[in-house]
Structure formats: structure tokens, C-alpha cells
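User: Show me a protein chain along with its predicted structure.
Assistant: Here is one chain, sequence first, then C-alpha cells.
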Amino acid sequence: MSRDSISRREFCAGAGTLLATAAVSESGLVRSFAANAEKVNVAEIDRKRILSAAQRCLKEEPITVTAYSSPRSAGGKHDYFSEGDYWWPDPKNPNGPYIQRDGMSNPDNFVAHRHAMIRLSLQVPALAAAWIVAKEERYAAHAAKHLRAWFLDSAKLMNPNLQYAQAIHGRFTGRGTGIIDTIHLVEVARSIPLLSTSKALTAAEKEGLKKWFADYLEWMTTAKNGQDERDAKNNHGTCWIMQVAEFARYTGNREQTDYCRNRLKSVLFPNQIAADGSFPQELRRTKPYNYCLFNLDAMATSCQILSTAEDNLWTYKLPDGRGMEKVMAFIYPFIADKKKWPYPPDVEYFDQFPLRQPSLLFAGLALSRPEYIATWKTLNPDPTVQEAIRNYPIRQPILWV
């Protein structure tokens, strides 16, 4: 299957819905969040969307990394492979190493594995959400079919590493930067425990899935590429925490959960948030609006995963007042009214954002800011442009609260 054949239907629009309850969820949100959630009937808002998306997903069979290959990959059949987005052939040396054009995506890069993973990230969460909403076994069973193919079937599974992700022709066979590609496994991991009340997965399969994610977590936290991505000073470092936090939550790795919570407070907040609440590392890019929203959602989702009643990351502040409240205060006016954006427009896809950013819902509930939630309700939850879908990995609120 070529990259041109990947359609909107294959991407299976992920419809999000939230069953708001008064109890503190497994995600670790504080009691005030749950109390505020009672006031937001997102299940009623999204029920039709989520069931419609799940119906489409029922018609789609699993497609894993083994369905595609690239002669430029240094890995094998089961190894995920992608190429750095902003790297192009050098006009002065067409057969030599690629050169960088920041913000400009090379349309000739190999993206089939990335698209397959994005399909998975839309299918499994949508089906899991439908199982929660409708309690029909067919949704859980079809989600399990995808999970078996990707993580359990020896003929089709993906190896639990990203050693060959975001390679650069003539320079690197893979980079730590590529680990950002598995942000699209975050909601997949979030979905699996929620399917446990169905009959879709056997006990052995549940253990097998947990082992795959435990193995990937081990690789992310010990391999050089993983450690390089951890130490990135921009959205890549944020996305590393979001992934490790969720995979650790799913696999019961308390050590990594605690590490991520501390790193968010001691490294990300001090080094990524400016005095006015902005993200300087994102603002300096050629797509500052998109990157700020992307980093915001990753940071907000990390807070959603890691906050506890004893350690609420939403209200945590550095001694100078920097924290999530200041971040939201900075960015919210530009989400509510994009025309107020005072920085250069993005060189690509500026018209595709904002979307229904999950940070608005999460922060609105956690910080008791109804205006965030009101704006969230007005935004588009179903992007159709592939790049927009790619930069919008958290789509199913029902899985998070």
C-alpha cells in the first residue's frame, strides 16, 4: 500500500468522549478535578461521534509495520522505520547526505510505518471508547484484534524499540528524535486496561501486551537514543516524559513514574517555561503556533497522568511562579482568538490549528477554569489533514478521566 492510498477512512477519525465521575481516576487526578468533571457532560457531547468512528473502525483490518518496507532502512521486517521530516537531498550533492530545511516536510520520505501507527492510534482508542460507552463486545473484540497483530503475533508484530526512527539519509540510521513517533502509542496503552472488563483478551494476552510495553519502556530509558530524547530541551523532551509516564503507569513501574514526576518539576518547568508562561524553544521554530500547542498538550497530558492528591502538578509552581497555570494563561488567548497571535505564522499548516486541544479540557477541569472548557467545546475534534492528525495524539477524553 502506498502512502498516497492512506485515506481519511483508514485514519479512522478518533472521536473523544468523557464519562465524568466524582471519583479520582487511575490517572492520578486530584479530587477537585473529579468534582469539576461532574459539571461537564462530555459523554453527551461526544457519544454520537465516538460510536460513528467506532463503526468505521470495525471495517478496518490490522495493518502493522510488516506490511511495508523501505530500502533505506537499516532494520529488519519487524523494525519501525521513519525518516527525519525536514531533511532533503542537497542540490549541490544530490547523492550525498541530506541537508535540513526546518519546518519544511520532505514529501518523498518514507512515512508508511508512521501512518500505520497513527491508524492504530485512532482505531484502538476509538474502539475502546465505544466499548466503554456501549458495552458491546464487538468493539472490544476488534480492538483486541489490532493489539494482537501489533504486539503479540510473531509474524506481524513490531519490535519494542525505535532504533531506526527518523533516520537521515547519509547521516544516521536512526536518532533519539524518532522516539517522538510513538506518542501515538500513548492512547493505545491507555486503552488496554479499559478493555479488561470485556472478554476480548485472555489473561495470557494481557500479560503479553504488558510485557511488550515494559520492554519498550526499558529500551526508552536505557538505550542511547532514548536518553538523547529524554535530554532534548524542547517538545521532544516533553513527549518523552508523556510516553514514559503512561507506559510506566500501564506496566506498574513506580520508579519511572516517580522519575517523570520529578523531572517535570525539576527540569521541564524551569527550562522550558519563560517568565511570561511561553515556550521559547517552540516560539523560535518556523511553526511556532503548532509547536506551542503541541508542547502544551504533551505537558498537560503528562500532568494528567502524573498528578496525585499529594502532588498536584497542575497547581505546582516554581518559586518565581512558573508552572502550568502560567502556561495556560499565556497560550489561552491565542487559542480563543488566533488573530491575536503576535508571532510569525507557521510556514506550514497554520490554517489547521487550533484543534480541540486536550490541554483545554484537562486544565479547565483541574484549574476550575470554565472558559477553557467552553472554548474546547467550540473547536474541531476531527482533523482530516494527516499532519494535523499526527500532531494531535490525544483524542479520546473518555480514556483520561
